[in-house]
C-alpha cells in the first residue's frame, strides 16, 4: 500500500488487477488454439483428399466385360426390364448401365429369360441407390412381397451376399436377386455401403461401385431362386478375370 492508498498495478476504477498482473487472457489462448486446430484440419484435408481408385471406363469397354454368351446362357435382347423412371437415369447417377436378357436351352424348352441389370460408377458416392429393387420396383407399380438375405456360392471359399425379393404386380410376379460391390467389399445394406465408402475415403481413395441385379418371371419361388443362382454362377465363371473383378471384386 502506497502513501496514497492505491495498490500499484491495480485498476483505478475497480481495484481489479490489470492484465499484466493476472497473465494472458484465457479467451485469447482459446482463440489461438481454435485457429491452430482449424489450420491443421485444412492442411490435413488437403493432404488426404481422396483420389479416384480406378480409371473411368467407356461404355464399350464395360460392355465387353460381359460376353453375349455366358456359359449355357445366350443373349436375347435388352427390352422388358424394370428400371427407374427416365428422369432418374441421367448420367449424373451412373456411368454405365448394362441391361440384357439371357436364356438357356434345356430338354423340352428354354429357361428364362433372365433379366440382368448392371449399374456402375468408377467413383462411388452412393448414387446407385436408385437402382435398388426396393426403390425402382414399387415405382413401377410392384408390391414387394418378400425381401430376405440370400447367398450364391461361387466356390468353397467364397459366397456372394445377396438380397432375394419377390415382387408382384397382379399378372406379373418377378423373383429378384441382387448384390452390391463397393471397392473390394460387398455390402448389402445401404448403411454398410456408406460405411465402406467412408473407410475408403479415410484411406485416401474413392472406391468404384457396382449394383448387379438379375430377375426372372415365374410363379415358383424355389425354382426362381435356383435359376437366378445358376445364372450368377455361370456369369461369374464366364466373364473372365476383368469381368469377375467387376462383379465380385478381388475374390
TrEMBL record:
Coiled coil: none annotated. Residues 33-238 form the Methanolan biosynthesis EpsI domain. It comes from the Bacteria. It holds the Pfam family DUF3485. Residues 1-25 are annotated as: Disordered. This is EpsI family protein. It comes from Sphingomonas aurea. The lineage of its organism: Bacteria, Pseudomonadati, Pseudomonadota, Alphaproteobacteria, Sphingomonadales.
Amino acid at each position: 500500500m502506497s502513501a496514497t492508498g492505491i495498490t500499484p498495478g491495480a485498476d483505478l476504477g475497480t481495484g481489479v488487477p490489470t492484465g499484466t498482473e493476472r497473465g494472458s487472457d484465457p479467451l485469447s489462448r482459446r482463440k489461438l488454439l481454435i485457429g491452430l486446430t482449424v489450420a491443421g484440419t485444412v492442411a490435413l484435408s488437403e493432404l488426404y483428399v481422396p483420389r479416384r481408385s480406378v480409371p473411368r471406363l467407356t461404355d464399350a469397354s464395360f460392355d465387353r466385360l460381359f460376353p453375349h454368351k455366358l456359359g449355357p446362357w445366350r443373349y436375347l435382347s435388352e427390352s422388358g426390364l424394370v428400371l427407374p423412371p427416365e428422369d432418374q437415369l441421367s448420367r449424373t447417377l451412373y456411368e454405365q448401365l448394362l441391361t440384357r436378357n439371357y436364356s438357356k436351352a434345356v430338354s423340352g424348352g428354354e429357361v428364362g429369360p433372365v433379366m440382368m441389370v448392371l449399374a456402375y460408377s468408377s467413383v462411388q458416392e452412393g448414387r446407385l441407390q436408385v437402382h435398388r429393387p426396393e426403390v425402382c420396383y414399387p415405382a413401377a407399380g410392384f408390391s414387394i412381397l418378400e425381401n430376405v438375405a440370400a447367398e450364391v456360392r461361387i466356390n468353397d471359399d467364397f459366397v456372394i451376399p445377396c438380397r432375394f425379393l419377390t415382387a408382384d404386380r397382379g399378372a406379373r410376379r418377378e423373383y429378384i436377386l441382387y448384390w452390391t460391390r463397393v471397392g473390394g467389399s460387398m455390402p448389402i445394406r445401404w448403411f454398410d455401403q456408406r460405411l465402406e465408402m467412408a473407410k475408403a475415403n479415410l484411406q485416401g481413395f474413392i472406391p468404384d461401385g457396382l449394383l448387379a441385379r438379375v430377375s426372372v418371371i415365374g410363379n415358383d419361388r424355389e425354382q426362381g431362386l435356383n435359376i437366378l443362382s445358376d445364372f450368377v454362377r455361370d456369369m461369374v465363371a464366364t466373364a473372365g478375370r476383368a469381368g469377375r473383378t467387376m462383379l465380385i471384386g478381388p475374390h
